[in-house]
Amino acid sequence: MTDVATDKQLAANPLTENLVELRDVHYSVNGHVIFAGLTLSIQRGRITAIMGPSGTGKTTMLRLITGQIRPDSGTVWVDGRDVNSLSRVELYAMRRRMGMLFQNGALLTDMDVFENVAFPLREHSKLPESLIRHIVLAKLQSVGLRGAAELMPSELSGGMARRVALARAIATDPDMLIYDEPFAGLDPISMGVILRLIRQMNDALGLTSLVVSHDVDEIAQLADISFILAGGKVVASGETKALKNSDVELVRQFMNGLADGPVPFHYPAPDYREHLLADER
Amino acid sequence: MTVLKDLFANIQSFVANVGAVALFFARILSQIPASLSRPRLIVKQIHNAGGLSLIIIMTSALVVGMAMGLQLYDVLERFGSAESLGTGAGLALLKELGPVLTALLFSGRAGTSLTSEIGLMKVTDQLAAMEMMAVDSVRYVIVPRFLGGVIAMPMLTAIFIMISLFGVQLVGVQQLGVDQGTFWSQLRGSVDLDNVREAVVKGFVFGVACTLIAVHEGFRCAPTPEGVGRATTRAVVNSAVLVLILDYMLTAVFF
Predict the structure, then answer these.
(1) What percent of chain B clears pLDDT 90, i.e. is strictly above it?
(2) Which chain B residues are within 8 Å of A168, Cβ to Cβ?
(3) Could you state, in order of their start, the residue ranges of all structural domains in chain A?
(4) Which of A81, A106, B55, B80 could staple B125 via S-S, CB 3.0–4.6 A?
């Protein structure tokens, strides 16, 4: 990509205070509509949460932002560049400035903790071994796991694995960190640790953070701004605490964890009485 | 009509699958030069595919050789030519049994291991994590495993043939009384370089086929436990069928 082309892209996307912009994104899989005109923006330096009931495409949205999949129509801008127009090399250059924490950590199972954190450094730099060692130990120290450097991923608890993955995600000092369900399946202590780390990382390193989760209480403590997705679109956005009192019934149901509402408790079924009295199949 | 429709859908799916494998193969080939800069990864995979298959290959080879010694001796003796045991065993093993049986054993041991390992890496998001770290998962994960399998297969084939010949000799010479000198001189006299070349070429081609199918099935499997299971089964079945088809084609070429 030439400088001229980059300038043109920036001109086409003047909202550069937003690190990520999705505009009128449509995306379907096998005829099943995931997004139908999704538009949202993620501001630099803030913690943005994406929430919504299961199956609303939260993880799919992350895959769109990171260029793992392409939308059927609409545009995805990251740092002033249209992700869909990037070549593989440009896409990799963009991803080097992002760190992603997967739900289960996604540590490479044939390497120990130290090597996992060192992996992106070894792949993308020619730093001397002594410097790599210093960086890796510093990153592990920041997540409290310097002492676990020689453990294998199979020896870590779920919370520890995610902390190691976080150390790996920040190893190359990215501009943006993406968290996919960072609190899922964690005990309260681990959850508190991850919560504190996300906040610390964002503030200390001046990052932009994007958190996908449906843990409402944790997100309320953490996120500066939240978007709630449903039906392929953003149905509500704003400060997380304010969303609890939203006028939108679906948002109220989701934020307050109500069993019944626009998302029904019962899966569609014929009349119960008729069902019971019907002949056995 | 439904039968025709199903047949058309199956043909379409088969052609699409062949196309996907061909594209994947091209992608692997394009990444080989970059992957060669990490010889340690390739050596590790040669050990995984070859070294860890040695026990099963050697044990099977010995048993196959001993059974072959009994069968061949029985047939040859009816024609009064039991001394030709070395010739028959050498040619059968080099031209046919050695490469084919090694490939089938390889796809059962190393191929399934490759498919399930790569599939599990997919299930646990390790491949996606590499892509997110801007590391090409094909270059880092697939190519070393592919090269490891392709390099290991001809070596395993050679070992299989040698151990099998030892098994034939064990039964034919030590047990049934064929003359030792006759056995080895018949073998040396009838086996030429073309037969050895056929074994090496078949070993190499089967190595490419089995390893390509194994890594492709692992790479494209559905990221679920069932998906990995199905992919592993598909890898073994497809490898076996492809090896037998390729064997006929190569035999016709060398005929």
Answers:
(1) 76
(2) 133
(3) 3-97+175-190+204-277, 107-173
(4) A106
Q: Could you tell me if B119 and B221 are in contact, meaning their C-beta atoms sit under 8 angstroms apart? A: yes
The pair phi, psi for residue A51, each rounded to 5°, is -125, 170
Task: State how far the Cα of B98 lies from the Cα of B102, in Å rounded to an integer.
Answer: 6
Cβ distance A106 to B133 less than 8 Å, yes or no, reads no
Which chain B residues have a beta carbon less than 8 Å from that of A92? Answer: 134, 136
Predicted pLDDT of residue B61: 96
Render pLDDT for A111-169 as a digit per residue (tens, 0 to 9): 999 999 999 999 888 889 999 999 999 999 988 889 999 999 999 988 889 889 989 99
Domain A3-97+175-190+204-277 maps to which CATH number in 3.90.550.10, 1.50.10.20, 1.10.10.10, 3.40.50.300?
3.40.50.300
How many CA atoms are closer than 13 Å to the CA of A97, on its beta-carbon side?
12
Average pLDDT over all residues of chain B: 92
* Complex-level ipTM: 0.80
pLDDT at position B67 is: 95
Tokens of B155: 């070596």
CB A39, CB A22: distance < 8 Å: yes
User: B185: Cβ–Cβ under 8 A, 6 or more apart, which residues?
Assistant: B86
Label residue B100 by pLDDT band (50, 70, 90): very high
Query: What pLDDT is attached to residue A12?
Result: 46
Q: DSSP label at A209?
A: E
Identify the residue among A86, A91, A102 best suited for mutation to test binding to B, counting B beta carbons within 10 A and taking the highest: A102
Q: Which residues of B touch A111 (CB under 8 A)?
A: none
Q: Between chain A and chain B, how many beta carbons pairs sit less than 8 Å apart? A: 47
- Residue A6 contacts residue A169 (beta carbons within 8 Å): no
- By C-alpha distance, which of B161, B52, B62, B154 is closest to B109? B52
A178 forms beta bridges with A100, A210
Query: How far away is chain A from the Cα of B107, in angstroms, using its nearest Cα?
Result: 22
Domain range for B18 is 2-254
The predicted-structure confidence for B2-59, as pLDDT tens digits, reads as follows 888 888 988 998 899 889 999 999 999 999 998 888 899 999 999 999 999 999 999 9
**Out of A66, A93, A104, closest to residue B125 by CB:** A104
Q: How many domains does chain B have?
A: 1
Q: Give percent of chain B above pLDDT 70.
A: 100
